[in-house]
């Protein structure tokens, strides 16, 4: 199966259209994204492979997706922990953090992060998504470098953090050699996927045919009740 890709500009426009014209809220979109992430983790790293999941969250919507994923993983029987070095003041994120506190999901401090990397079985990179551009700013250069050199499997959410959405990995510095074992594209793959080598999932089952046609997107066939599907990407079809 091959899918067309969605530029960062069109991804932002699509999200806006979903909320303005199609009745969706940011809470709903984040919930579905985090659910998709959790299902991708279960598919490639079932609890029998190790239950300690470290979720590294950024300050934006990508980090919120990671917080939601951590909650679902806790209900699946994993033992997630969350490193959230630069949290948002948005009340939505406060609610997501409270939900994790109620499940006794551990919050990792900066001092604990290196040890947590070594003791975890799997890592979710939910630092930056399709809106990332420019250069990394503190504390994220060091965080990306540590994720890049981690010896445990990594699933990146929507994009490997530090990668440019159009042009892929940076030529040098943190993230230049970062190639996570798995990637989940939310809604649709982004143009950088032509540089990615690994297992690739898409989570976007909520899209209607109307909005998919508006953005010239393919709707993959999701099996059964799954929110994710493993795919290949036709990079010639990028928007």
Architecture blueprint of SSEs:
Blueprint: H1 8-21, H2 26-44, E1 52-57, H3 61-76, E2 79-83, H4 91-102, E3 106-108, H5 113-119, E4 122-126, H6 140-148, E5 154-157, E6 182-186, E7 199-203, H7 209-214, E8 229-230
Parallel strand pairs: 1-2, 1-4, 2-3, 4-5, 5-6, 6-7
Antiparallel strand pairs: 7-8
Protein name: NAD(P)H-hydrate epimerase
Cofactor: K(+)
Keywords: Cytoplasm, Isomerase, Metal-binding, Mitochondrion, NAD, NADP, Nucleotide-binding, Potassium
Q: What proportion strand?
A: 5-15%
The global form is globular
CATH class: Alpha Beta
CATH architecture identity = 3-Layer(aba) Sandwich
- The total domain count is 1
* Total strands: 8
Q: Unreliable segments (pLDDT under 50, ≥5 consecutive)?
A: 235-239
Here the CATH topology equals Rossmann fold
CA radius of gyration is 17 Å
Ends apart, CA distance between termini: 18 Å
Largest sheet: 8 strands, mixed
CATH superfamily membership: YjeF N-terminal domain
What is the helix content? 25-40%
Q: Give average pLDDT, whole number.
A: 92
């Amino acid at each position: 199966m091959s899918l067309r890709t969605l530029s960062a500009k069109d991804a932002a426009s699509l999200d806006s259209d979903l909320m303005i014209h199609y009745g969706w809220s940011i809470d709903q979109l984040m919930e579905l994204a985090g659910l998709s992430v959790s299902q991708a983790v279960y598919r490639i790293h079932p609890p029998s492979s190790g239950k300690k999941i470290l979720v590294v969250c950024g300050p934006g919507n990508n980090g919120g997706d990671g917080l939601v994923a951590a909650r679902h993983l806790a209900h699946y029987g994993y033992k997630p922990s969350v490193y959230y070095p630069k949290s948002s003041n948005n009340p939505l994120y406060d609610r997501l953090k409270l939900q994790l506190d109620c499940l006794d999901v551990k919050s990792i401090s900066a001092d604990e992060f290196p040890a947590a990397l070594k003791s975890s079985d799997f890592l979710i990179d939910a630092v930056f998504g399709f809106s990332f551009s420019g250069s990394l700013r503190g504390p994220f250069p060091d965080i990306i470098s540590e994720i890049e050199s981690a010896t445990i499997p990594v699933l990146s959410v929507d994009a490997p953090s530090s990668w440019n959405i159009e042009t892929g990995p940076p030529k040098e510095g943190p993230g230049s050699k970062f190639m996570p074992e798995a990637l989940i594209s939310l809604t649709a793959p982004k143009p950088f996927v032509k540089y990615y080598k690994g297992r690739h999932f898409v989570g976007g089952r909520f899209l209607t045919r109307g909005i998919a046609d508006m953005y010239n997107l393919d709707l993959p066939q999701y099996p059964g009740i799954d929110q994710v599907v493993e795919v290949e990407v036709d990079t010639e079809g990028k928007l």
